[in-house]
Specification:
The protein has about 140 residues and is an all-alpha fold. It has helices at about 5-30, 35-65, 80-110, 115-145.
Length: about 140
């Protein structure tokens, strides 16, 4: 793998983060239940966290001299039922957790000439993996209640 190929994957990860931001914002307004106010607060907070993820990915790409290719998310299913919303959120978060674990492996395959680039992105992806994994845990706990 080359640095350029890896950056293409980072661009794809940015698009997923845009999707998450839009997903949480939309569902904060669309959720419909007795507990809608509490869920709206949770989903709005999750959107705020995703905005920080989007900003982090933008910062990383622009920091290495790349103009981000994706400035919007992918299409996602729209729900009003809290369990469907939270289940879909877990699916989104689990996807990126897997992707970020893959990125960490892919960074190991970069040539030695990319040592600093790989080290920088390793730290970045470790942080992203931790945040997304913890988000999964929180949402799974909500689904259990």
């Amino acid at each position: 793998m080359t640095e350029k190929e890896f950056i293409e994957l980072v661009q794809s990860d940015l698009q997923n983060e845009w999707t998450h931001l839009q997903f949480y914002l939309y569902h904060a307004s669309a959720v419909n239940s007795v507990h809608a106010l509490e869920l709206k607060e949770f989903l709005t907070s999750a959107a705020s966290g995703e905005m920080q993820h989007v900003q982090a990915f933008l910062d990383r790409l622009i920091g290495v001299g790349v103009k981000p290719a994706h400035i919007s998310g992918k299409v996602f299913a729209q729900h009003t039922d809290p369990k469907k919303i939270l289940s879909a959120a877990v699916d989104l978060e689990e996807e990126v957790v897997k992707n970020y674990a893959d990125r960490l492996e892919q960074l190991e395959s970069l040539p030695i000439t990319s040592k600093i680039f790989a080290a920088y992105f390793t730290i970045f992806y470790e942080d992203q993996l931790q945040d997304s994994y913890e988000d999964c845990e929180k949402i799974r706990n909500l689904l259990r209640s």
